[in-house]
Request: fold
Amino acid sequence: MKELMCFGAHADDIEFGCMGTVIKHLKDGWSARFVILTNGENGFKMGRVSPEERVRIRKEEQLEVGRRLGVEEIIFLDYPDGFLEYREDMRRRIAGILKQRRPQKVFSFDPANREYDNLNLFHRDHRVAAEVVFDACFAAKNLWMYPGEAHRVEEIYFFGSHKPDCFIDIGDVIDSKLELLACHKSQFPDFSKVEKFVRKKMSKIHDAYEFSEGFRVLRVEQMT
Reply:
């Protein structure tokens, strides 16, 4: 079975960035795993509760998405939300996951985004996550850098990109994408506003489709 792996800095990043495309892959027989880098505790909007409770709720919301989708596995790396740093242990952990699970496709933030024109899209956690996943994909295809057999990801789909070159029609799954995004109740006190935003954004990505997701796709070639 072909497998894809999605990386998000926080619970809900995958739902925003690529969930429609993930749903279509699952319908086509692919399996999927999610990797969430931070605990997401500082994006919490359901009142003043302890950090431990915020982490628990955010993880449970992401697990609920996984249950509804039938995702193979959700891996939480448990870094602090809002303070993500490019660290060697992070690259090592992600490269190890890639070597062990061996996905053909990876979905992640675009490390080429450096316009700094949107605080929500280009903030620190997203930038660091984009770079470390990119570098981990390189490291995973090397036999010697980290333990485990080398694994070459075939394609990386970068979401949130300013230069998309691949557009996926998600008109038939936009409602499912929104239903899964709505699982993150701690983020969205008024989901009607989020739904309106997502529908508007997805409707503007490509003129040929009522709703679509756009990606910059990197095909990883092995020259030697």
Notes: The chain has one domain: 3-219.
